[in-house]
Each structure stands twice: as structure tokens, then as C-alpha cells.
Amino acid sequence: MKTKHCDWCDHPFETKLSYQIYCSPECRQLATKEKIAQKYLKDKIKKRAGKLRPCKNCGRQMSMYTEETICQSCEINPDEVKGALKEIKDIINGKIKLD
Ligand SMILES: [Zn+2]
Ligand SMILES: [Zn+2]
Asked: What's the rounded Cα separation, in Å, for the pair 43 and 28?
């Protein structure tokens, strides 16, 4: 007899079978159910990954996990960013004088 730890509940149990990894049929069942649930979730994410999720503003591919329709860089108002960049250029070119 060998003492092992159940792969599901971690309780020690004795077995002669080298392939037995659960202490009881209940634990085996629960572990199997969890594996099925995990596979289901993985398949769900895979299906979602197959779909394109382009940003509505710039068309850039976004993370498959996001529910947003606009990407992070567009969330910062692009016109505001452009305006700020223009201002910086104008300052550099001396068009705008700083106090
Ligand atoms: Zn167990
Ligand atoms: Zn975008």
C-alpha cells in the first residue's frame, strides 16, 4: 500500500493502484466536472478570439477579452492628442511664445 494525496481534495489516502489519483469516486467526479468546465471556458475564449474586434475609431485589433468598442489609445480623445502635438510643434517652431 502506498499513501497518496488526493488530486482533488488533497486528503491522504491509501492505494495499491499507481494510477489512482483521487481518494473517492466523488472526488474523481468533481475533478472531471471541473476539467469539462475549464475546457468549455477555453473553447469559449477561442471562439471569441476567432472573431475580429477592431476599434470603431481606428480599426486596430483589440484584445479578445475586452468588451469595449474603442481601443485604449482612442479612449484618450485623438483630436485632443493631435491638438497637443501641434501645440508642442508650434512651441518648438517659435509660433507660440512661452512666458
Ligand atoms: Zn479526495
Ligand atoms: Zn482605436
From this structure: 23
